[in-house]
Write a structure and sequence with these properties.
Length: 306
Amino acid sequence: MGCMRNYLTEYRYDLQRTFTGTSGTPPEWVPRLAEGNDAGYHLPGSAVWAVHGSMATIVAGIRVLLMQALHPGALAGVYEHSGFKEDPLGRLANTVRWIFTVTYGSKEAAEAATYRVRKIHEHVRGSYVDGTGTYRHYAANDPELLRWVHVTYADSFLTANRIWGRPVPGGADAYVREWAQAGRLMGIEDPPVTEAQVRGELEAWYASGILRSDERLAETVAFIRRPPLSPLLQPGYRILFAAAVASLEPKYRDMLGLRPARLGPVPLPAITTARIVLRMVRLALGSHGPSELAARRRLQRLGYAV
């Protein structure tokens, strides 16, 4: 039992370092989610809490990185400005911080976190060639690019939750409608509010020919396939990556140059195996993360029944 406990502790610390940059204790921004004098944009029992509190978000995160890379403008911003190769886990930790602050924090905290992201985006500019061969300029705060990021996020988190998650209060449309607030905070006008609208916008982008498959995309996909994780996390990550690939629509898999995992002619059960990995992650991290618990303390202080 002692060896098992030591393994789980080391595994938990590696997971925490990967997602937040710290282990053993939460990063400094998490306890501050207990501060603030309003309930925030999302409450316990909401669709957003249900989806973002599920371990399926880990597969969703891999899937959304693959989907977002299909837009050459979004990819150029990440490739040229984010330093994702030098410090990929730092970038992941910053993304997790924004998502969880908008999900669990007060309105003031969510707006401050979003302002910080948009200020960073102000310096992210450049040019790219889209899938039609058109030369375009981009800025990270461009409404088109922000919309692509938001829509692929919603699609990936819904898809992953449908496969590996739990029932969503109000269904998929409730999640899209609630998370539209995150899009508005980022400056997106009239974000989609139903799953059908999310699907429709994705189809429109695909039909437009803007999405592009090239050497830069292949290099990025190769990096996402094998990021610099600790040896303890690598076997599980390979399974979760295969599961994310299996969850993609075939046309997007083709653009990404990916195929469902196989052992010779036999398809590997990536989706089923991923459930085992996600259960292990839940065993290590617990059912309720520190961000959610901090939010509940704030809500209790404000008189909400949680």
